[in-house]
Write a structure and sequence with these properties.
Layout lengths: L5 E4 L2 E4 L9 E7 L5 E7 L1 H10 L3 E4 L4 E4 L8 E8 L6 E7 L33
Parallel strand pairs: 3-8
Antiparallel strand pairs: 1-2, 3-4, 5-6, 7-8
Length: 131
């Protein structure tokens, strides 16, 4: 029996994403050529449908509460090469060919703030508790 979220349609198994209680699914966007992770955004059912129909990324802006077509104003569109759901069907990997930077800061990737592997409790806002 297929896992929850899978549907049988005319004897063909198709997968159905699991959106959270706000109707969103996290979308990890990766450069299809370099494999660099570009951003983490969120999609709702409509932005996912638009992405599938147009071949360009569309997201749901949680801060503005509106659909967002990546690159519509900047020209930095992302052409979708492949979309894959994770094993739990609740996260999406979107492999793209970007036309420019992914980040609103102008950086290629939104991930450019290194975090040390070893941190003291005060660095992460916790008190040092002795056992």
């Amino acid at each position: 029996m297929p896992p929850e979220g899978w549907k049988n349609l005319d004897n063909n198994l198709i997968v159905s994403p699991k959106f959270d209680d706000r109707g969103l699914i996290p979308a990890i966007v990766q450069n299809a050529q370099t494999r660099q992770v570009l951003t983490l955004a969120y999609m709702n059912a409509e932005s996912l449908r638009l992405t599938q129909q147009t071949g360009e990324t569309h997201f749901w802006s949680r801060s503005r509460q509106e659909l967002w077509h990546k690159g519509a104003t900047s020209g930095n569109i992302q052409k979708v090469v492949e979309m894959t759901l994770d094993c739990d069907l609740d996260a999406l990997l979107v492999r793209v060919i970007p036309a420019g930077p992914a980040c609103h800061t102008g950086a290629v990737s939104c991930f450019f703030n290194p975090l040390p592997l070893t941190v003291s409790p005060t660095q992460i806002g916790e008190e040092n508790h002795e056992d």
